[in-house]
Specification:
Length: 122
């Protein structure tokens, strides 16, 4: 079983960049697909991006494609979400998640971090 801890959230202005990290402990990190989701107040948790275990194949939501980059460093048991050209509508709690197979739904992931707040001011 893997435990996930996100960090790197904060308050930024529109157009700024921010990098989120997801540190994994327990289990074999390289055997898990890693995903990022976000949840804004009053909204459902939505898929942001996911990356495969070893090939690094990435999938993105249309809303972040071209602005966000997901990556991972299996040697450091850490995943990342590089966010650029941030918009106020990107404001949400961001969660990292892990599971054995890549999916686009929150139901596809068994392991979750506690979340980190990202706030983008206009």
């Amino acid at each position: 079983q893997v435990q996930l801890v996100e960090s790197g959230g904060g308050l930024v202005q529109a157009g700024d960049s921010l990098r989120l990290s997801c540190a994994a402990d327990g289990g074999t990190f390289s055997s898990y697909v890693m995903g990022w989701f976000r949840q804004a107040p009053g909204k459902e948790r939505e898929f942001v991006a996911a990356i495969s275990q070893s090939t690094g194949t990435a999938t993105y939501a249309d809303s972040v494609k071209g602005r966000f980059t997901i990556s991972r460093d299996n040697a450091k048991n850490t995943g990342y979400l590089q966010m650029s050209s941030l918009k106020p509508e990107d404001t949400a709690v961001y969660y990292c998640a892990a599971d054995q197979r890549l999916g686009l739904s929150r139901r596809d992931y068994a392991y979750w971090g506690q979340g980190t707040q990202v706030t983008v001011s206009s």
